[in-house]
Specification:
The protein has helices spanning about 1-10, 85-95, 120-135, 140-155, 165-170, 215-230, 240-245, 250-275, 280-295, 300-310, 340-350; strands at about 15-30, 40-55, 60-65, 70-75, 105-110, 175-180, 185-190, 200-210, 315-320, 325-335, 360, 370. By secondary structure, it is of the alpha+beta class. The protein folds into 2 domains: about 1-190 and about 365-370, Ribosomal Protein S5, domain 2 (2-Layer Sandwich); about 190-360, Alpha-Beta Plaits, CATH 3.30.70. The radius of gyration is 21 Å and the shape is globular. Alpha-D-galactopyranose binds next to helix 5.
Length: about 375
């Protein structure tokens, strides 16, 4: 394994262990996690592999096979760029009172870049999973996910929900992970595409619109303000949608419409999957995309064209996945239509003078685990 070779070369010793944590794609349940709602992601076959040994002192030495310069963090506050995701996990664990020393680490990642498939969550979760074992912390997988989320919220400064880290830590092969983001209860739902003659294509737009004014944080605030106006803890608690919408206006009204209907769509998808009607979830994927585009306003031209052209090419359904403003769309496609979808999407991009998107199938992979 090349992380092990790189570890030997960098630190002149064998690593104590090697761990892997995957990225994720979200089937449905978008921008619902921080509203105490429902999500249904699955882990992708790409992720972050880390060879790690603990150290006697508190120093963290890091090398990534994707980045040239190795980094030595004598203290965690020296972390910059990608190393903050690693340092953040050490920081959260130490703040929580765990006896966590330093470590020598080599990272190897293969999550496609800019695809919005949560490479940062994979990095946090792989480190959390390794430290949990190396320092015998006794954390559950969900506690590792919460640690990773806290690292991202409080150390990196991104106010994300729990979905990405939970998917990376808890997903099971061949299954999607249903999660109630209030109770944190999870259930693995069989999601066997091949036996239904289906593929789930990821269409990586290759774009990332970094909007300067923190659109993600703004959406989160809109939702929290809407819940406050309604006298509720979270938008999850809306039971009478018509009544709620009548009391709201503008952005808060639109965000509420999305979150409440999206939670229902997650439940409907689960019902269909349970019934073995996998093809029928397509219509709900389409509805989710329209809601994210028009009510939640987190799509962009590249995502809309990916979704519209995939459907035109014969997809059963398609939607943007993840936070939005770029990254990837997903399309549910029967085996016979895969080529037609590829061609239609690629042509639509070419007609606009955009670089061809990468298009590849994803099957549900296993969550974080020790490899060696
Ligand atoms: C990002 C966040 C998640 C979630 C999604 C939107 O991926 O990290 O917590 O909010 O956006 O569903």
């Amino acid at each position: 394994m090349r992380v092990v070779e790189a570890f030997r070369e960098s630190y002149g010793a064998e690593p104590v262990g090697v761990w892997h944590a995957p990225g994720r794609v979200n089937l449905i349940g978008e921008h619902t996690d921080y509203n105490d709602g429902f999500v249904l992601p699955f882990a992708v076959p790409w992720g972050v592999t880390a060879a790690i040994s603990p150290r006697e002192d508190e120093v963290v030495r890091l090398r990534s096979l994707q980045v040239d310069e190795p980094v030595t963090l004598a203290t965690l506050d020296q972390a910059e760029g990608w190393t903050r995701y690693v340092a953040g996990v050490f920081w959260v664990l130490r703040e929580a009172g765990h006896q966590v020393g330093g470590a020598d680490v080599v990272i190897d990642g293969d999550v496609p870049q800019g695809a919005g498939l949560s490479s940062s969550a994979a990095l946090e979760v792989v480190v959390g999973t390794a430290l949990n074992e190396l320092y015998e912390l006794g954390l559950t997988k969900m506690e590792i996910a919460l640690t990773a989320q806290k690292a991202e919220n409080d150390f990196v400064g991104m106010p994300c929900g729990i979905m990405d880290q939970a998917a990376s830590a808890l997903a099971e092969e061949g299954k999607a992970l249903f999660m109630d983001c209030r109770s944190l209860s999870t259930r693995s739902i069989p999601f066997d595409l091949a036996s239904h003659g289906l593929q789930l294509l990821i269409i990586n737009t290759g774009v990332r619109h970094e909007l300067p004014d923190g659109q993600y944080a703004r959406r989160r605030r809109d939702c929290e303000n809407a819940a406050k106006h309604l006298g509720l803890d979270a938008l999850r608690d809306v039971t009478d949608l018509g009544g709620a919408l009548a009391r709201l206006s503008g952005d808060e009204r639109r965000r509420t419409q999305h979150v409440v209907t999206e939670n229902h769509r997650v439940e409907a998808v689960i019902g269909l999957l349970r019934a073995g009607a996998v093809r029928e979830i397509g219509a709900l994927l389409n509805a989710s995309h329209l809601s994210l585009r028009d009510q939640f306003e987190v799509s962009c031209a590249e995502l809309d064209v990916a979704v519209e052209s995939a459907v035109k090419g014969g997809a059963r359904g398609a939607r943007m996945t993840g936070g939005g403003f770029g990254g990837s769309a997903i399309a549910l496609v029967t085996d016979e239509r895969v080529e037609s979808v590829r061609e239609t999407v690629t042509r639509a991009y070419a007609e606009r003078g955009w670089a061809a998107p990468e298009i590849y199938p994803a099957t549900p992979a296993a969550g974080a685990r020790r490899l060696v």
